[in-house]
User: Which sequence fits this backbone?
């Protein structure tokens, strides 16, 4: 029995190693090494309850969680005494939490989100029974501001709960916060709550020169960020909001000796240590280098596709390259995310130029864009 179990695990390890070599369609940083903290996985760590309340239960990692949250608070320019947050199970939980707070603050509010918003936003509307108004998107995936203003003007007597995409799931588009604020002011909407879904771009935009500024110095109320860009063997993320909003919904739970302020009860205690380790070993400077490299490599991929007149699109400040759907063989091999007649490649830290060249070479041969491999080599270096 033990031999069979060992063999099954060895086979699965080989399969995952092989699949990791050609993983390009989903936003996961596969270039991380967490072997230094592997021994901690021999222990149970549960961060149940509020990250800032010391519970009776001793097997937790709140110290690390608090340091992670301070890192993000500094990145998003909200004072230590004004913010609250926690390490989530991922971007979806962060979105659920932000929309939940909006509903609690404005029970009669209307949720506005674009048709390119992540599916977790419509899920939040259903779960929390919020009236949901879907806004049209522009062709690049950005919210249609004219349609948004039409809907806001029509419902100007109702509070607005607004989800803005800071990098859409499919096209990497960034909704313009300043334009949305102008529309709210023009229509005299004073009761509003703005949640920012920054699942992937939340750890890219702050490090890019002249990129749009999205932080708490502007009137946003919550932001959800996934750990995808940082890289983690466990799905996780961070949600940040204003402390004053959380105080409206917290309840004391005697059983755990803490406050119930999160979506989940038990929370993964290893995830904060993973994030803490990444931040301690890479820091702001390291993450900034990685963000700029991913953007440059995305631009390189886009240029190589354009050079061959292959239909493609790349939004500003995005590492998501959209291209016409290739053969099913390439989609399967490179694990590309498909939608309608398109796929995308998300250029993460593990997608370097050598791997991009390999993909372009295979695409050329598969699609018959050039006569032979020599043509590719000549054009790639020109």
Assistant:
């Amino acid at each position: 029995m033990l031999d069979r179990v060992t063999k099954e695990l060895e086979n699965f390890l080989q399969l995952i190693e092989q699949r990791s070599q050609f993983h390009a369609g989903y936003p996961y940083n596969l270039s991380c090494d967490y072997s230094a903290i592997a021994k901690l996985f021999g222990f149970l760590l549960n961060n149940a309850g509020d990250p800032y309340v010391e519970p009776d239960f001793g097997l937790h990692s709140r110290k690390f969680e608090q340091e992670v949250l301070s890192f993000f608070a500094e990145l998003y320019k909200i004072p230590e005494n004004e913010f609250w947050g926690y390490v989530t199970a991922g971007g979806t939980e962060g979105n659920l939490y932000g929309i939940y707070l909006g509903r609690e603050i404005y029970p009669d509010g209307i949720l506005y989100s674009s048709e390119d918003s992540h599916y977790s936003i419509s899920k939040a509307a259903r779960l929390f029974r919020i009236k949901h108004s879907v806004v049209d998107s522009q062709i690049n995936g950005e919210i249609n501001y004219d349609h948004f203003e039409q809907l806001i003007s029509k419902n100007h007597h109702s509070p607005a709960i607004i989800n803005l995409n800071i990098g859409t799931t499919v096209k990497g588009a960034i909704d313009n916060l300043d334009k949305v604020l102008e529309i709210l002011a023009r229509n005299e909407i004073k009761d509003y709550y703005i949640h920012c879904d920054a699942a992937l771009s939340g750890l890219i935009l702050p490090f890019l020169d002249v990129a749009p500024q999205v932080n708490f110095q502007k009137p946003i109320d919550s932001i959800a960020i996934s750990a995808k860009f940082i890289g983690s063997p466990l799905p996780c993320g961070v949600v940040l909001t204003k402390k004053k909003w959380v105080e409206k919904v917290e309840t004391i739970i005697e059983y755990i000796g803490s406050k119930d302020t999160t979506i989940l009860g038990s929370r993964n205690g290893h995830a904060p240590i993973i994030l803490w380790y990444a931040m301690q070993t890479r820091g702001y400077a390291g993450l900034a280098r990685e963000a700029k490299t991913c953007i440059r490599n995305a631009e390189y991929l886009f240029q190589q596709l354009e050079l061959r007149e292959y239909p493609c699109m790349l939004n500003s400040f995005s590492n998501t390259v959209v291209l016409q759907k290739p053969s099913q063989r390439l989609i399967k091999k490179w694990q590309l995310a498909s939608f309608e007649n398109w796929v995308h490649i998300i250029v993460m830290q593990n997608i370097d130029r050598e791997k991009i060249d390999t993909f372009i070479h295979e695409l050329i041969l598969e699609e018959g864009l050039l006569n032979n491999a020599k043509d590719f080599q000549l054009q790639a270096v020109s």
Residues 2-30+289-380 form a domain with the Aspartate Aminotransferase, domain 1 fold (CATH 3.90.1150.10). The chain has two domains: 2-30+289-380, 35-280.
